[in-house]
Task: structure prediction
Amino acid sequence: MEKTIGMRIKECRVKMGMTQEELAGELNVTRQALSNWETDVNEPDINTLKKICFLFGVHMDDLAKEVITKMETY
Result:
């Protein structure tokens, strides 16, 4: 099974030793919003994805393949 964007965000956050509260603060979102992303209830918008990539030093393609594909489809 391929990792979801939520799994990737959580994996990066844990590797950086950050709590949901800390990452949410960095991204100016609620902890609940971040939790929803990590559990794939919904997905961050493109600007927030850019911030996440910058914070964690990852390429957008690596973090959000399925989100980019969905955006291209619509």
